[in-house]
Specification:
Helix content is about 65%, strand content about 5%. With about 290 residues, the chain is mostly helical.
Length: about 290
């Protein structure tokens, strides 16, 4: 690998070099490996169940059909499931952003009693599998009469230990002088938070929003436990209804439904890709 050393505007040495061809080759192989299942699933959405597994992966000869979309999606209330998933994932994500940013700001910029202990509990909760707390959660929601409701699905997802940790780590690297300057200029606590902290945290917030939305969009276990009526089923639960009464699975219908289910994930990435990349590359402020 050819390496060169140049100087940036500040006069500091910067090492740069030619990206080795072997890295491009490895990335290309990984990209193809991840792309093949996606392309195959899109192709399967336009084939009959018999042709899906009868044809080779790279056979695109058809015959193509729209029956999976025009007929299959009408066999179950698919768009009702889709709307429920949008509501659950959207509301959960918005509340997670609020709770993570405010809690992370408190842990990063303020000193208070039991601060280290509380943050240690947040970190410890990251190590706790959801299966170990789902029964107490279910009992608590049953006592609050939240079973079989969208609020019951949303409530446990409104606080994210990972989100709090992520926001705390980012905000701890911000220069305290920026916030102090806002106080000197007459800003109160909430004004400084809104005008200084929130704009600077847009990149990690975008990353957290994408992760939280996709996690709640694909969540299957908790909605399965809480949702007891078909009118509040989310998409992961609704997809299981294509199996039929006798256990016969119509894979064409499932792939057609999955085609629509993947659209929000694609839109989230396209809309937030720059902020997501920036949040991973941002290491601090050069002031």
């Amino acid at each position: 690998m050819k390496m060169t050393k140049t100087k940036n505007a500040a006069g500091k040495g910067v090492v740069s070099g030619t990206f080795p061809i072997v890295n491009y080759l490895a990335l290309t192989i990984l990209a193809i490996a991840f792309t093949i299942p996606i392309v195959w699933s899109i192709k399967a959405a336009f084939l009959t169940s018999g042709d899906i597994f009868a044809k080779p992966i790279f056979d695109f000869s058809g015959p193509w059909t729209m029956k999976n979309f025009t007929v299959g999606l009408k066999t179950v209330p698919f768009f009702s499931f889709f709307l429920n998933s949008v509501i659950v994932a959207g509301v959960s994500t918005l509340v997670i952003l609020l709770t993570s940013l405010t809690a992370g700001y408190g842990f990063a910029c303020f000193n208070f009693r039991w601060k280290k202990t509380l943050f240690a509990l947040v970190i410890a909760s990251l190590l706790m599998p959801f299966e170990s707390i789902m029964i107490p959660l279910f009992i608590g929601e049953k006592q609050l009469h939240l079973i079989d409701s969208r609020l019951g699905i949303i409530l446990p997802a409104t606080v994210s230990a990972f989100g709090i940790f992520m926001m705390r780590q980012f905000l701890a690297a911000l220069p305290r002088e920026l916030i102090d300057a806002a106080y000197i200029d007459g800003c109160g606590f909430f004004a400084a938070f809104r005008k200084i902290v929130v704009p600077l945290a847009k990149a990690p917030m975008a990353t957290l929003a994408a992760i939280s939305f996709l996690g709640n969009w694909n969540n299957y276990l908790w909605p399965l436990i809480v949702a007891q009526s078909q009118n509040i089923y989310t998409l992961p639960i609704g997809l299981t209804m294509f199996r039929g009464n006798e256990g016969a699975t119509n894979y064409g219908y499932i792939f057609a439904a999955s085609f629509f289910a993947g659209i929000p994930a694609l839109l989230i990435f396209l809309l937030m890709r720059r902020s997501i990349i920036q949040s991973y590359t941002l290491t601090g402020l050069n002031l």
